[in-house]
User: Fold this.
Amino acid sequence: MTSDLEREAPWMHRLAALDHALAERLLSRAFYEWHEAHADAFRSGRWAALVAVGDAALRIDAVAGVVAGFRADARRVYLAALVRARAERSAEGAGRVAEAFTRLGDTQLAQHARRVESELW
Assistant:
């Protein structure tokens, strides 16, 4: 669940702008918004922000393709989200990261995230 404070978070606004840019096929604008959202998400210190930014990287990848390299960015951001979830002792966060790795097709890291999730319950 997203709190009122998180709805006002800068990374949320950046991701909305990113989605608008993708809808308009303005890839350079989408890239810019993703990088800004990425920085804002890391500053937030929240696993949920990082998962959202990783998901956005996959949306860019779906439009821009392999050339842009956003699948690798998504993987890296999801790993950071897992570290944050573990630090916050959030089983929910580890579970969300496991789902993200599954969507990414990385079964090995999905299994690792599930082990972290089970440790946190």
User: Anything to note?
Assistant: The domain at 8-120 is CATH 1.25.40 (Serine Threonine Protein Phosphatase 5, Tetratricopeptide repeat).
